[in-house]
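Appendix B, Record 12. Input sequence as logged:
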Amino acid sequence: MHPKWLERHMRHFRDALYHLERGDGVAACYNAYVSVEALLKGILGYSPYGDLQKVGRLPSLLKRAIGASPPDVEECAECLERKAFSEEGARCVKCAELVINAVYRMLESSFKAPSRSS
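Logged structural output:
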């Protein structure tokens, strides 16, 4: 993953939390969406400086990045897509956390060293 994607992911999630704490649901939802999108595009190998011709909805990016995921994770990706500019900041941030945690778990499991048996 290009470091710029990780920086964008973390910055936008931090911004989502900031705006949620201040009661700006629209900004919280937008930043939650962008945070998840940046993480997924980074995993998929998109260029952070181009690839503008590559367009995909969050649910399809999620599926391409981690394959099958639990229904609640898929529902949250759909929710973030639908509510990217809504006032439901708390819901958007919770959904972003759920999707991000699922992606982190997938990444963690893919980098675990094989266990050695004695």
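The two ends are 35 Å apart (CA to CA).
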